[in-house]
Fold:
Amino acid sequence: MDYAIKIDHLGFAYGDGHVALRDVSLAVQSGAKVALVGPNGAGKSTLMLHMNGILLPGSGSVTVCGLRVDEKALGKVRARVGLVFQDPDDQLFSPTVFDDVAFGPIYQGLGEKEVRVRVDRALASVQMCDYISRVSHHLSVGEKKRIAIATVLSMEPEILVLDEPTAGLDPRARRGLITLLRTLPQTMLISTHDLRMVAELLPRTVVMDHGEVVADRPTAEVLADTALLEAHGLEL
Amino acid sequence: MHVHFLDPYKPRPSLIHAFDPRVKLVLALAFILAVALTPIGAWPVYVLLFAVIVSVVMLSELGVGYVLKRSALALPFVLAAVPILFTAQGVPLLAVPVGPWTLTITVEGLQRFITILLKSWLSIQMAIVLAASTPFPQLLVAMRAVRMPRLIVAVVGLMWRYLFVMVDEVLRLLRARTARSGDPGLPGARVGGSLAWRARVTGGMAGNLLVRSFDRGERIYAAMAARGYDGEVRTFALPPIPTGQRLILGIGLAVLLLLVMLGYLV
Ligand SMILES: Nc1ncnc2c1ncn2[C@@H]1O[C@H](COP(=O)(O)OP(=O)(O)OP(=O)(O)O)[C@@H](O)[C@H]1O
Ligand SMILES: [Mg+2]
Structure:
């Protein structure tokens, strides 16, 4: 089987000893779009930070595109996995929107023309073309979020890992994002509290709570299981 | 993201840790003052002061090695005192030829230099023990309790807070950059970009850091002001200092005074 993401018995504890992930196993096929849901503090963001080696496994292993995520593979992994942080301030670090969106492609060694094409295309996908020379720091939260998504789209990664992509977006931007994500061919792992988007966009849902995977089923089944939803503080 | 590695406080179940922060603050400041007042070349007194600090370190259970290692931080500052070796008037000890000049080290110069070395080393050790055995917020409370000017205490407190805010921002910026530093293994592509571009990115990040830290500082201040902050950190009324500790405070101050006086006799 050709898995884009394969997580085996992953365990992780933060520096202060707090155990955030316990024995998480998950396999995602190439091209699949998977939702990751669960209450605050379930460990969703922690799991996502493992996808491109920002955090490294305490125990178990993470494999993306056939590459085992460890110190040696970091460069290759990061070119294949586009990670959008939950907080857009964690994502943007350059003076202008252009610099930020162009960072990934330039780093990968692409030529100037190709970089410009990619930046324009990425900004167009999130309907932010007019913002190209703005100072990223002064944007509104929703604007920042959209630029944050553009910064990884411009890298054209094989896997998109999005942490709460619709949080803070207005209805039109949310709708635009859902349409965009539907058209993109990439494998996606999306953590979210937006179950209506999950119902619309993501055929498979993984439920996490207390650092563990408690359900991994087709979305329709999960959303119909009111006992499960209630037990883990979810609401449609 | 939060940084804890900067915080000098090291919890230990020791006598020193359990002391009232006001007592610790006053005794530590008195110790440093005593060290400063001890005259040049009063070696026996320095030995006694050293004995005092070693006992305090042992009582604090921080480990002599830990305190010594941290106190090495003070060494670079001592370099500032090197010219004293040559400028002090007195009996010549050694001539060092430097190009066309000859620098003469005098006995007095050497004495002064070693004294300064010892003074800074003793003082810094006491400061280390104080910071490692008292949580910072308690130190602030103690500063207020011993009537340090409110402005100074507020500035020290905010500096401490913002130091962490800034380091937090640095870590966030670095993590954002690493997350997108990918190498797809394209043939012929120069991964990492040109040196000039990398320098520009780093420069941009530095600028970003300043703006963001400043903004976050403002927001934190607004949050504090919104909840009624007026420059004064309010806490519960401090309990009175227990009699035993008052006694120790008195004895400690007396001993230090005695040591300084001894310094002028020897
Ligand atoms: N840097 C950290 N140090 C220590 N503990 C942390 C750290 N970051 C997160 N945690 C803890 O790990 C657990 C999982 O956090 P995580 O951010 O993965 O949750 P989440 O599922 O993304 O929640 P949310 O829906 O609120 O985004 C939480 O209990 C959190 O307190
Ligand atoms: Mg999260």
In short: Residues A 14, 16, 18, 20, 38, 40-46, 86; B 1 surround adenosine-5'-triphosphate (ligand 1) (CB under 6 Å).
